[in-house]
Amino acid sequence: MPPTPRVKGRGTVTVPPHRFEAWRRMELDDGWPADAEGAEGTAPSTQVREEHARSILSRNDSPDIGFELSINPYRGCEHGCIYCYARPLHSYLDLSPGLDFETRLVAKVNAAELLRAALSTPRFRPQRLCLGAATDCYQPVERRLRITRSVIEVLGAARHPFSIITKGAGIERDLDLLAPLAAQRLVGVYVSVTSLNPELSRRLEPRAAAPARRLQLIERLSRAGVPVGVSVSPTIPFLNEPEMEKILSAAREAGAQTAFSIPLRLPWEVAPLFREWLQNHYPERAERVMARVNDMRGGKDNDARFGSRMRGVGVWAEFRAQRFRKACQRSGLGQERFDYDFSRFRAPGLAAQGELF
């Protein structure tokens, strides 16, 4: 099978059917020249649909994730990370986890309004909350729509602690909000650094900030007093995993305080997309990479069981975990979660009244 054409700025150019789709498509060369947008080397444009969502807080009951609540201001992500475990979520929109995930975005324009209402309900109690768990809340479209900023304003007014995970340098714009909250132990930021190699990073995450820019981001957040951690996730055998120690050392030097790492996960439609990407970019390593992934996932592309999905199983998974722990110790990085002050929370209505006195 010939390699799929590469398109600058996109993780994939294919539009595979999602798992709920009744129809299956087949490519057919009809002899006509390709449209300009589909031509090799031309990046398809990004479309953003505004949505008035029904709810904004997602609850997590998974024992191997370190938060109970999450907020995702967008559906889909223009960063185009080929390995993104959130790609299959586009299936619920009747869209492809492939190119559609990167180019057909949904913006929850009423996110701040919904959040304010949710925090005001009498039964609400503050819990660990993560902003951007299934989509990067600082992807390029945030510069214009500013939905993430409006959500932070609501959380800040209510003094509700939260964490952010991002690989987008746009978070620097909101330092005026984050720094005062950090001084009250209300926020922590995790910056995802998957590689220090610009070429590998550009292929894995075509529209995300470059590695040097992410280290600079860690430094600037730290200098502003915002607690910063580094996520070396996902680790991919024979691609970015050999860099693990160097990434942790560079992040600590930049100002990171803590770190975590998750081996590559390939749920649902992500597995064939990633295999195709490997054949396109690293065909000489593709079999070795997937063989090692299968070794750590019980002989499969993915293992979704609680307790193993975030760590993997077997000898190689344990070896990876030991390397990570020792590298953190050498670099002086902790592996604990940030310590937040939940006692400051005030429901939005009460917070507004308190500001009058």
Automatic annotation (TrEMBL):
Q: What terms describe the molecular function in GO for this protein?
A: catalytic activity; iron-sulfur cluster binding; metal ion binding
The record's listing under NCBIfam families reads: rSAM_PA0069 (NF033668)
Q: Which organism is it from?
A: Inhella gelatinilytica
Q: Is Iron among this UniProt entry's keywords?
A: yes
**Can the keyword Magnesium be found in this entry's annotation?**
no
- Pfam families referenced in this protein's UniProt entry, alphabetically: Radical_SAM
State what protein this is by name. Answer: PA0069 family radical SAM protein
SUPFAM superfamilies, from UniProt? Radical SAM enzymes
Ranges in coiled-coil conformation: none
